[in-house]
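User: Hi! Is it possible to get a structure for several chains at once, not just one? Here's what I have:
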Amino acid sequence: MTNALFPVILCGGAGSRLWPLSRELHPKPFIRLPDGQSLLQKAFLRAAGLTGTRQVITVTNRDLVFKIEDELNEVNQDNLAISLILEPSARNTAAAIASAALMVARKDPQALLLVLAADHLIENKVAFEEAVNQAKQLAEKGRLVTFGIKPNQPETGYGYIEYQENQVIRFVEKPDLPTAIEFVASERFLWNSGMFCFKAQTVLDELDKYAPEILDAVRETISHSKISQGVTNNNDFFHCELNADDFTRVPEESFDYAVMERTENAAVVPSDIGWSDIGSWQALGAIGQTDGSGNRLDGEVIMHDVHDCYIRSDNRLVGAVGVENLVIIDTPDALLVAHKERSQEVKHLFKQLKTAGHEAHRLHRTVHRPWGTYTVLEERPDFKIKRIVVKPGATLSLQMHHHRSEHWVVVSGMAKVVNGNKEILLAANESTYIPAGQNHRLANPGMIDVVLIEVQTGQYLGEDDIVRIEDVYGRAPIETTNK
Amino acid sequence: MTNALFPVILCGGAGSRLWPLSRELHPKPFIRLPDGQSLLQKAFLRAAGLTGTRQVITVTNRDLVFKIEDELNEVNQDNLAISLILEPSARNTAAAIASAALMVARKDPQALLLVLAADHLIENKVAFEEAVNQAKQLAEKGRLVTFGIKPNQPETGYGYIEYQENQVIRFVEKPDLPTAIEFVASERFLWNSGMFCFKAQTVLDELDKYAPEILDAVRETISHSKISQGVTNNNDFFHCELNADDFTRVPEESFDYAVMERTENAAVVPSDIGWSDIGSWQALGAIGQTDGSGNRLDGEVIMHDVHDCYIRSDNRLVGAVGVENLVIIDTPDALLVAHKERSQEVKHLFKQLKTAGHEAHRLHRTVHRPWGTYTVLEERPDFKIKRIVVKPGATLSLQMHHHRSEHWVVVSGMAKVVNGNKEILLAANESTYIPAGQNHRLANPGMIDVVLIEVQTGQYLGEDDIVRIEDVYGRAPIETTNK
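Assistant: Yes, the chains can be modeled jointly so their relative placement is included. Here is the combined structure:
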């Protein structure tokens, strides 16, 4: 009998390279490809489709949890068990893998972990499954297996692995261009993909040997963390909310640096699987069909003499004249125009925004909450307009605002509203008014989304003017995010 | 005593070359420059500042009248008389000048007309006034005077005038580049600016001689037109709404072609007045200060290694990386990215949109009405959200919709609302509901703007679902535009 397999999806990222579509709270894994699926959904389905997978573990920032649950539920038609490890802050991959290994080892130390990234694209599914099978065999023998990608160009943004068959000769940091050219020509080097396979016990032993301070700190964190367990479709799952105080003390290190480059048990599976890490707009723009002039278009675009551009727009008309090799990315609150070959440098804009404290680095106009979404349609000093979408069965917190009154107009679905002492049902085309200082609550008791337009008025309209009296999602009485 | 001077501003244009900022119903004269004034306002102030000006006549499309009145009132601090000739359709400049000359001649056939364009920029005001004084002297002697601009580059988009002192030797149509280069080098040619000066009687005589069918048709039109007169600040003004049936029968011809190229009385005033016709985004982008990298920025922009770009954004963040010589124009519903030197070709996009019947060629999200403006904030199949701004003292029509209900939330000012049989006052943070089929009316009895958020719901939300029961602006019971 072969060992059980636990795919572990590492889902994070700064959101900087694919700005303005990606944001700090909407990083790369959530980007949708032309077929409508996000990179995260593709990673999940890839993991779910492997022989022997009975649950998929996702390690992610706790702020992303509602969004991740929405994304995974959307494609989890087989009702696979979904386990979550929620990090209060990013502590790099060694900590993330240690936490997953500890959680799996509690159940089965001999089980195999298959560590995958949520934001990679793998186009050859059959080759991927073959590579995983090879990796499993090596992992069962106690090896720490990394997946090495056969390079097709002298990429200077990746680490390289010198190899012979399944043996790792050495890891090499990001090389300069002449070295990269030499590496690719030699055919003795692979790109280091950041995907791994090993037994839980093996990786814990090696962490104990080469990075004990990380392992100990994560073990300590888990012992103080909130862990819940359940069963779905006869398969166990768990939710582990890592303790924030302990986790901040875990040293930040990459798993490559902490373990792989030091261990004597490293192995590599050369993989020709159509891999891309979608590290830039140029890479994302290389997916999908082009028109006769080499343009890739997603949205409403009119052009005159335009060549080799990637143009993507949510809901506005984009006109282009006499340009080539541009990336044009239009979102409701921010626009990017970049030269295709310079699109990696969009991270500099992201840094500028973050340094300046500009909201556009962190959030989209549409914000995901446990109960649904809200979208700011207009914001002025004395009023704010939101479109609020509440999922069937969901309930917002019982809350009160000191400074703002709210006018609610239901435009779709049936809302249950607590307004002061009254509880009322509001159908489409019905409205209610909530004066400042009055307790209120919004819920969707129906089977379809409630869509509601909220007009806020008042002298202070900040999202932090909220007093939570009761919340089914266990959120703090006062938060900086709304509802 | 010198003859009276009537500046005549021709205000029209297709809105195609400066799309998406210009639209068919928001053409070039309404474009605002970095100092906050529109080209039309600058033309008006230029005309108003001339010695002897007691009223300014504007000839324009009747659909633009509310917008023009708003624009001119904003800068008409001296309360100059403003006369309007409203064209039901565009019939080119010969017809426009004929109508102005006929209107002026009714009062004083010896008065001088100074024909100016609403969308030209003239940077040297002193030189302009000197040129006008020269032109007036020639015009008083019975000459038809055109202003010739000293060329500073071999422009192929303009007509040229060969001249000697004030004599016109010949008019030349748009030349090819080698010819243009030769013209500029010879120093014997001027650009034909489309600005003129002549006595009303002189131009009527010449029209009668060279284009009698135009003059007769315009005379016929005026005899069937609605003309009102008034006095402001001791100066007369008139409003002439040209009869639509008659005016469509006026031959379409340019004044240059109909008269100037044929008359024996032509004269030219060589003018070095800092003139530009702002014929493209490149020309508009050449106005104002650049940053150290040659960029002209208007709006919130972040950049990394960007050179010689013109970036303009109303209210969204624009990020640019590694690009140069681009024009990036961002508006609420449409975006343009064009190579600077190709920016003239934006008219091709405009044509595509017009052919396809796309609203973005015609209207902005914000639409001007006689009572104020409305802005579509969001439009979905089952609801639409508008921000409505009503000017102090203004009243919308008493109206009814068959298919849509409306929820009104006042967020600023004090509104007077007729809702069925009731008349109510609504202050900020108050709301009302108007069911489909119910008569209603909105007015602003106060001293500051009323700002109101309207949420429409219903199965049909087209602007043509409106029955007007009563309207203070004399509008038809049913129109394709709202309110």
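Confidence is low (pLDDT under 50) at residues 478-483 of chain A. Residues 281-351 of chain A form one domain.

User: Great, thank you!
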